[in-house]
Amino acid sequence: MSARNRELFALIPASLLLTAGFAAVFIQRDELLSDLSLTYGLIFLALCLAAHLVLRMTLPDADPYLFALVAVLACFGLVVLYRLDEQLARDQAKWFVVGLLFFTATILALRHDHRVLERYRYVIALGGIVLLLLPRLGSPTNGAYLSFSLGPISFQPAELAKIAIVIFLASYLRDTRQVLVVGARRFAGITFPPLKHLGPLLAVWGTAMGLLFVIQDLGSSLMFFGGFLALVYVATNRISFVLIGLALFALGARVLYAIRPTIESRVDAWLHPFDPELYNQEIGGSYQVAQSIFTQADGGFFGQGFGQALIRLGNETPLLPAAHTDFIYAVITDELGLMGAVAVLLVYLLIIERGFKTAMLATDSFSKLLATGLTAVLALQVFVIVGGVTKLIPLTGVTLPFISYGGSSIVANFILLALLLLVSDRARREAVA
Amino acid sequence: MNAPILKLFVLVLVLFGALAAMTSYNTVIKAEEYRENALNKRPLIKQALVKRGVIRARDGSLLARSVKGDDDIYRRRYTPAAERFSHALGYDYALTIGRAGLERSRNDALAGEKDELTSIVDGLRGNRKVGDNVVTNLDPAAQKIALDALGDRRGSVVAIEPATGKVRVMASTPGYDPSALRDEDVFERLNRQDNSPLFNRATQAGYVPGSTMKVVTAAAALDSGEFTPESQVVGKSPIDVSGVPLSNFSNAQFGSITLTTALTNSVNTVWAQVAERLGDDTYARYMNRFGFGSDPPLDYPDGQMLPSGVYDAEKQEPIAVDSGRVDIGRVAIGQERLRVTPLQMATVVATVANGGMRMQPRLTSRIVDADGRTVERIEPVKAQRVISQTSAAQLTQMMSNVVREGTGTAAALQGIEVAGKTGTAELNIAQRINQPWFVGFAPRSKPKVAIAVTLENLVGAQGGTDAAPIAKQVMESLLR
């Protein structure tokens, strides 16, 4: 069976899941089970089919599972959002259309050879930095400059910037990886990379980190840094470079911890979420983390069922804040239990596996590094938010890719998917030939 | 570059494994602890989203109901009639100050908490969860008479139906208005108030029982076979009890008299000698059978009941009566370090009235579902046989004498024979601060009501003149 036919079949479960999910929410709401749930399923299926046709025409050999797996996540997110607030689900559905347009545009623009991106690496890097600077013009939410508004649309530039930075790093490291290894010096038992070749790299990366520090988006900062280390490691195969990076990060984190009260309070909330004083603190307390844990505890092994989680009372302040964005994983855990949550994690793992597989199949260094970097930041994003929500690490707000509500997140992640598929198509075609 | 990519994937696997492990920790391993965390209001909110059942008095009058707010939360509303039953009823303000009384002990029924299977079946049938209603045994008319009779004095009245253990009256003064507790500040203020209005004196107050304890002593004496109502004991005063002289009231002197006479005239020295002859082991056995030493088996929260018995004054702990550290002669006449609740003393006389069989006291009559079907009828439950029917009949005869011609004449009813015993515990002889008591039951032949009445720290008060008349009024109301 051809790759695209396999993809077509793999889309069936996604559509079934969506239809069944909407039906479950309808039943829970004691509404008559109308054909509306089927309509939603059909519309979504039509969207998926349209994207599938684009892939069939443009990237016939691309990985058959990536898009189908993303569709599962996307429809899953749509059901959970529908359960939280119908309006959110409608908006999100519109964003999917926009996301798929960007997805198609990316593929169409780069289908001949995505490696043209290398040529524009400094432009792309600069674009990413400018994007990160934009929110500083607006007002902060929860002490962080996460988004800026363009008319009615609020935009989180870090989502797009992560792709720009990965493209830059992949392209730069392709050029310099050999020199980085050859020119390395051993000093005091540790291998140090040659500074002169690391300069531009550190400069761009440092600017991004600095800006993140300025706009105080800790989650994205963690994600960027992890992606940077992953790429340096894969490009050079030197674990010592990673260790040096981690040491620098630890040092930087220690300094930030001392001078930035936001970070300190995040760590306190992580260590002592049930401390009554922190819990009742108006701003920057542990209320969110504690509520997230309580929400998950209600889920148990099998969950309470769709629509059963206690999120808000009437029109009062919700018990669980940001249920549709940062804490959507807690809602999923409450309603579908440990089983459902682990299933979601497994879908992400499968996507990541396909992403790394693509990187391994790719024949040129840039494609390898690009696929690795994109997959790594996606994995890290999931880790940062799920880790924060489950209290594995301090909470920093990033979206859960393809599931959380948010236009910029959807658009950026669909562009990320498009790039992975572009790399995959070329790699698999070359592998066959 | 494929080797490092593979290693990177392994790292991602480890990280995701940690995510799954942490999710298991939150949802399964530590879930119970998180659900019970004091900061976690979710379980309480979930209960508050269910329409809680109403509580009714015996005559069907409404005491408590739930009203849904704009936020979908049901909040408790108490009727004016509920103020009379504030202690027995308790309150349900689970999201602020908590729950107490029947609202707490019958919470599962009121909140509609069913067993797993029933909930699943209900869920599949599309039934909305709704709480069951609770009908109590409490009698509003008699309760009102008891409260009016206590007036602004601190005290308590407990009336029980001897054959079934149904609690007809549970009065404790001062009381409070359960509706007012909706305001947390009111709760805090009442909680600090000197006269402790939130405290249920009927079940929580440990009072010195005085001569009412002689009913227990007489029961032990007769049932052990060592004595009969006609047994003769010399009632001279004072006598030496545990090395300390013990006198009769007004130092009255008696010659060799029967136990019947000794009860009628409440002769301390006779009953002290009787108990000393029975010994601590026997005496302790009868106390335990009457229910001393443990929480009463009432459908009421454990935290709101005090076991009656001899207490170590410093440690505030109960001491075993047969431990050898107790002056049994003085326990027999209700002195020593005895602390008893009005509910315990009502149980003692109810047991005698019921032919020696102690019944478990019950505030609840039945649980009714939202459609009016009786889900559970609270049947009478035997707690323990305390004394034989013969002993009970002999003791009843002796106690009738008390009301007919002894210290308890003020409790006598027109045309109905009452059996009883008065008590006056002298708490501070210099300031004449007393704790007056009356315990008894009526009608003598086929008892319908057993009662305990006591008043707290009253100057110059006597059981016969202050407590007995209250008992009379309440019994009259219940026998009407």
Model description:
The complex is a heterodimer of chains A (433) and B (480). Chain A has 433 residues and is mostly helical. Chain A has a domain at 115-259. In chain A, 71% of the residues lie in helices and 3% in strands. Chain A has 15 helices and four strands. Chain A has helices spanning 3-28, 36-58, 64-84, 86-110, 121-133, 157-182, 195-215, 218-236, 239-259, 261-271, 276-280, 287-299, 328-361, 365-389, 407-432; strands at residues 148-150, 153-155, 185-187, 190-192. Chain A has a two-stranded antiparallel sheet. In chain A, strands 3-4 form a two-stranded antiparallel ribbon. In chain A, strand 3 (185-187) and strand 4 (190-192) form a beta hairpin. Chain A is globular. The model of chain A has no long low-confidence stretch (mean pLDDT 83). With 480 residues, chain B is an alpha+beta fold. Chain B has two domains: 43-136, Penicillin-binding protein 2a (Domain 2) (Alpha-Beta Complex); 142-479, Beta-lactamase, CATH 3.40.710.10. Chain B contains 17 helices and 23 strands. In chain B, the strands form seven sheets. A six-stranded mixed sheet of chain B has the order 3-2-1-6-17-18, with no helix packed on it. In chain B, strands 7, 8, 20, 21, 22 and 23 form a six-stranded antiparallel sheet that branches. In chain B, strands 14-13-15 form a three-stranded antiparallel sheet, with no helix packed on it. In chain B, strand 4 and strand 5 form a beta hairpin. In chain B, helix 8 (140-150) runs antiparallel to helix 17 (463-479), helix 11 crosses helix 13 (268-290) and helix 11 runs antiparallel to helix 16 (389-405). Chain B is elongated. Classes of the chains: A mainly alpha (433), B alpha+beta (480). The interface between A and B is large, with 51 and 40 residues.
